[in-house]
Specification:
By secondary structure, the chain is α+β, with helices and mostly antiparallel strands. The protein folds into 4 domains: 86 residues, Uridine Diphospho-n-acetylenolpyruvylglucosamine Reductase, domain 2 (2-Layer Sandwich), CATH 3.30.43; 112 residues, Uridine Diphospho-n-acetylenolpyruvylglucosamine Reductase, domain 3, CATH 3.30.465.10; 108 residues, 2-Layer Sandwich (Alpha-Beta Plaits); 86 residues, Alpha-Beta Plaits (2-Layer Sandwich), CATH 3.30.70.2740. A hairpin with a 4-residue loop joins strand 17 and strand 18. Helix 1 packs antiparallel against helix 3 and helix 13 runs antiparallel to helix 14. The longest helix has 20 residues. The chain is globular. The C terminus is likely disordered.
């Protein structure tokens, strides 16, 4: 990066908010999927105007800008694969407004998701999207990836709660999108175009969020099964029965084994799968739904346990949210996928992954958001074993092909980034891909904003899209 550019960046940000030392750059060379490519610099802006000035400079001098929240993304979206400037929004971490009358919040992109939820709970309100990383992920990153979480089965995902935004285009122009009202149809829906665009079209600087009243009551259940098929087949039946859980999570026996010590209640040795189910709403509604659930499960081959204290519930959720990092007790690396299939096809998907694990001599575990068909498939490998690594990549490609054959999609909440870019043409036809790429060119004609993400680059093959996943 030219010294002239660095001098201008220091003038925009202040010297202390621009990093160029190699040891500092190393901290921003990777995200949750791994990676180790150093950027040329790291910037910490504090305002919309600073971001606009940075992007005007980048557009003029043609250097890449990579927006970054907390770096918790799992598909390489925050990796500086072409070098350039990593734009970290952690200083823009203010909750600007909580409008309790109209159930709206306005925040900056660096606000930690869990911290917003805590602030809202004190006012009897909730922001439903709850990714597993909520204690450290940011709202801007959630918006870029359209994050989901366990509550999506009832409440939906990030795009259902962001009703407007302020954002900076690669040209440095500042745009505002959306409304503060429950309804609004004025021109194209640019808000939802930007949600899930993975930092390739614009940089969020303010987010307008729709809120809900906090439910009066919540009840948590563990459903234990002696066979995986019993658990996966029951998911669609539960939702067809008139029971509306706010969360319906699934773990196979391997996922259970890596967090068993964290669980608040002992599990029978025969447990091969479990469902973690919660019901929320008014006390009357929760009691009615809980009774319906008990009656529904009574004749079925399932052991039902009920969480009786808030501490038990907290430990259950700590265990669930710890599965992904805990898997490294099995192998030092993994290929982490977040595929989605129709709920009725979950048994087919889980059966296929079991067969794939046997055929390729791999450990493959499944867990995740069964209520909306979003299953996390972790293919555990040791990258130093080249044959095992190759089998892992083969399993990934086979998994994607099977998911699409079942009527599913390659990603439910992690996005495409770099690790899935080469596989995007398996799902998106050429005409649709062309429209997407033309939109990218319209927003970013000089390709300075997060280049190399989402769309496969010409040199890419199906071979190695794991990165250095940790």
């Amino acid at each position: 990066m030219k010294q002239e550019v660095l001098r201008t960046l220091r003038a925009i940000l202040g010297r202390e908010h621009l990093l160029t030392a190699e040891e500092d750059l190393a901290c921003y060379s990777f995200d949750g999927s791994g990676g180790d490519i150093l950027p040329q610099a790291v910037a910490f802006p504090d305002s919309t105007e600073q971001i606009a000035a940075i992007l005007r400079l980048a557009d003029k001098h043609r250097f890449p800008v990579i927006p970054r929240g907390a770096g918790s993304g799992m598909t390489g979206g925050a990796q500086p694969i072409h070098g350039g400037l990593v734009l970290v929004c952690s200083r823009m971490n203010r909750i600007l407004e909580i409008d309790t009358d109209n159930l709206i919040a306005v925040t900056e992109p660096g606000v930690i998701t869990g911290e917003l939820q805590s602030a809202l709970q004190k006012k009897g309100l909730m922001y439903p999207p709850d990714p597993a990383s909520l204690k450290f992920c940011t709202l801007g990153g959630n918006a870029a990836e359209c994050s989901g979480g366990p509550s999506a089965v009832k409440y939906g995902v990030t795009r259902d709660y962001i009703i407007g935004c302020e954002a900076v285009l690669p040209s440095g122009e500042i745009i505002t999108t959306g409304v503060r009202t429950e309804k609004g149809v004025t021109g194209y829906d640019l808000t939802h175009l930007l949600i899930g665009s993975e930092g390739t079209l614009a940089v969020f600087t303010k987010l307008t969020l729709r809120l809900l009243p906090l439910p009066e009551a919540k009840q948590t259940f563990l459903l234990l099964f002696s066979a995986i098929e019993q658990a996966t087949e029951l998911v669609a039946e539960i939702l067809q029965s008139g029971i509306m859980p706010c969360t319906l999570e699934y773990m196979d026996h391997t996922a259970i084994s890596v967090v068993r010590k964290m669980l608040s209640v002992p599990l029978p040795d025969s447990t091969r799968a479990l469902l973690l189910l919660e019901i929320d709403g008014s006390r009357e509604k929760v009691e009615q739904q809980a009774g319906t659930l008990r009656k529904f499960l009574a004749p079925r081959p399932v052991t039902l346990q009920e969480s009786t204290t808030e501490e038990e519930r907290r430990q259950l959720w700590q265990a669930r949210r710890s599965i992904s990092p805990a898997t490294f007790s099995i192998k030092p690396h993994k290929i982490s996928e977040d595929v989605v299939v129709p709920r009725s096809k979950i048994p087919d998907l889980v059966h296929y992954t079991s067969r794939l694990a046997l055929e390729l001599e791999l450990t493959i575990l499944t867990f995740g958001h069964a209520g909306d068909g979003n299953i996390h498939v972790n293919i555990m490998i040791d990258k130093t074993d080249r044959q095992e690594y190759a089998r892992g990549l083969e399993a990934k490609k086979n998994l994607f092909e099977q998911v699409l054959a079942l009527g599913g999609t390659l990603s439910g909440e992690h996005g495409i980034g770099t690790t899935k870019a080469a596989f995007l043409p398996l799902e998106i036809n050429p005409a649709t891909m062309s429209i997407m790429q033309r939109i990218k060119h319209l927003f970013d004609p000089n390709n300075i904003l997060n280049p190399g993400k989402i769309f496969p680059e010409e040199s890419e093959q199906f071979a190695d899209h794991l990165g250095d996943q940790r």
